[in-house]
Automatic annotation (TrEMBL):
SUPFAM superfamilies: GntR ligand-binding domain-like (SSF48008), Winged helix' DNA-binding domain (SSF46785). This is AsnC family transcriptional regulator. InterPro entries: GntR_C (IPR011711), TF_FadR/GntR_C (IPR008920), Tscrpt_reg_HTH_GntR (IPR000524), WH-like_DNA-bd_sf (IPR036388), WH_DNA-bd_sf (IPR036390). Keywords: DNA-binding, Transcription, Transcription regulation. It comes from Thalassospira xiamenensis. SMART domains: FCD, HTH_GNTR. It holds the Pfam family GntR. CDD domains: WHTH_GntR. Residues 5-72 form the HTH gntR-type domain.
Length: 225
C-alpha cells in the first residue's frame, strides 16, 4: 500500500470514529482543506478517505454544499435498524458459543463501566462505553466478515443510536439490557443472547416514534419530512 493509501485508511478510521462518537454530525461539512490542516496531511489522502466514506454511505456530496456527513430518510432508517438488530443478534449468538473467558472478563468490566456511567446520567459518555461493549461482542463472534459488516451498519446508524440514549429513561433501560445480554453470553446461552440483543437494538412502535421526535431536522433528508 502506498503512503497516501495508508494515510487515507487511517483517516477513514478517524472520521468514522468522529461520526460514531458524535464529533461529526449529519449535515456537518467536510472541507478537504480543513481536514488536511487538522490531520497534517496533503489533500490526496483526504480526498481518497472521503471517497471511501461516500462508498459506505457515511458522507455525501451535495450540490452547492460540497461533502457533508450524510443524513438519511426515515424509510432507510427503519430498514437499517431492522438489519442492525439481526446482525447484532447473530454476533451475540456466536459470541455466546465462541467467546474466550478473557473476553468475557473484558465484557464484564465494560458492563460495570456502563453501570457507573448510567448513575451519572451522562448519555454521551455512556454511549462511548456502550460502543466498546458492543464491539467486544462483535469480536467475540470470531467471524471477521460478520464483525466488519456489523460495524459498517453500526457506523452508518451511529448518530441515531446515540440520540436514542437521550430519550428519558433509555440509558437506564439500556444498561439493564446489557446485564441480561452479558448473563446469557457468560452462561453460553446462544439463543437467549441473540433474542435479547435483537430486542436491545430493534427500534419499533413507540420507540421509533420517540426517536423520530428528537432527531434534529438536519439528520433526516428533506424527502422524509
Amino acid at each position: 500500500m502506498s503512503r497516501n493509501g495508508k494515510l487515507a485508511t487511517d483517516l477513514v478510521q478517524k472520521l468514522e470514529r468522529d461520526i460514531v462518537t458524535g464529533v461529526l454530525k449529519p449535515g456537518d461539512k467536510l472541507d478537504e482543506r480543513s481536514l488536511s490542516e487538522r490531520f497534517g496531511v496533503s489533500r490526496t489522502p483526504v480526498r481518497e478517505a472521503l471517497q471511501t466514506l461516500a462508498g459506505s454511505g457515511l458522507v455525501a456530496t451535495m450540490p452547492r454544499r460540497g461533502t457533508i456527513v450524510a443524513s438519511i430518510t426515515v424509510a432507510d432508517l427503519i430498514e437499517m435498524f431492522e438489519v442492525m438488530a439481526e446482525l447484532e443478534a447473530m454476533c451475540a449468538r456466536l459470541a455466546a458459543r465462541r467467546m474466550a473467558r478473557a473476553d468475557i472478563e473484558k465484557l464484564i468490566a465494560l458492563g460495570n463501566e456502563c453501570g457507573t456511567l448510567q448513575e451519572h446520567a451522562d448519555a454521551d459518555a455512556y454511549y462511548e462505553a456502550n460502543v466498546n461493549f458492543h464491539e467486544v461482542i462483535y469480536a467475540g463472534c470470531r467471524n471477521s466478515f460478520l464483525e466488519r459488516q456489523t460495524k459498517n451498519v453500526r457506523n452508518r446508524l451511529a448518530p441515531y443510536r446515540r440520540l436514542q440514549l437521550h430519550r428519558p429513561g433509555r440509558v437506564k433501560k439500556s444498561n439493564a439490557e446489557h446485564s441480561e445480554i452479558l448473563d446469557a453470553i457468560s452462561n453460553g446461552d446462544a439463543e437467549r443472547a441473540g433474542r435479547l440483543m435483537h430486542q436491545h437494538v430493534a427500534v419499533q412502535g413507540e420507540a421509533l416514534n420517540d426517536l423520530l421526535a428528537i432527531v434534529p431536522r438536519g439528520y433526516l433528508e428533506p424527502l422524509a419530512s
